[in-house]
Amino acid sequence: MSEIRTGLGWDNHRIAPGRPLILGGVTIPSEFGLEGHSDADVLAHAITDAILGAAALGDIGMHFPDTDPRWKGCDSLVFLRHAYELAVERGYHILNVDSTVILERPKLKDYREAIRQRLADTLQLELDRMSVKFKTAEKVGPVGEGRSAEAQAIVTLVRGLSPFRAQTNG
Ligand code: C5P
Ligand code: MG
């Protein structure tokens, strides 16, 4: 008997000049980046919360408080990997991740494959289980006015059956 769980993640960071723009562990050429205590990787944060949510393990701030100097400037893939390991310790496998970054500019689609690959490597996931989408906010609201970036993620976990084992054994 296997158990399926879903988890939802959302994050928002303010746009700031002179900061790198890092999404899914990939640095995107841009004249501005995102403000935050860590590297402000809004996409990695949303996926981290989705994994934690599916396994009912709290949220990213509970595991990595932004008041802790250890996480200052931290590579957010560390957070993502930690959430994944907590889920694996509890017997979960990731079935798939879907995500959306909402950012007015720059255009991100040329970086889609690099971002998917980086996230799939971090989560030990086959590439076709890792989806990354991009949207503008059509010039409306804080994202549309170029003041912030958002990311949303949904993760499906399965416990009691390895999707990878199920595949290799036919
Ligand atoms: O927001 P909109 O529907 O106009 O986006 C159209 C397409 O532009 C998206 O499906 C996505 O492929 C791409 N896009 C992008 N980088 C962004 C926003 C959108 O590559 N920052
Ligand atoms: Mg964040």
Task: Write out key terms for the chains shown.
alpha+beta, binds magnesium ion, binds cytidine-5'-monophosphate, 7 strands, two-stranded antiparallel sheet, 30% helix, 5-stranded mixed beta sheet
Question: What do you see in this structure?
Answer:
The protein has helices at residues 42-54, 60-63, 77-89, 112-122, 141-144, 163-168; strands spanning 3-17, 21-23, 26-28, 32-34, 92-102, 130-135, 148-159. It is an alpha+beta fold and 170 residues long. It has a five-stranded mixed beta sheet. A two-stranded antiparallel sheet has the order 2-3. Strand 2 (21-23) and strand 3 form a beta hairpin. Helix 1 packs parallel to helix 3. The longest helix has 13 residues, at 42-54. Cytidine-5'-monophosphate (C5P) binds at residues 103, 105, 107-109, 134-136.
Quaternary structure: single chain
CATH topology: 60s Ribosomal Protein L30, Chain: A
Any low-confidence stretches, pLDDT <50, length ≥5?
none
Distance between the termini: 18 Å
Question: What's the CATH architecture name?
Answer: 2-Layer Sandwich
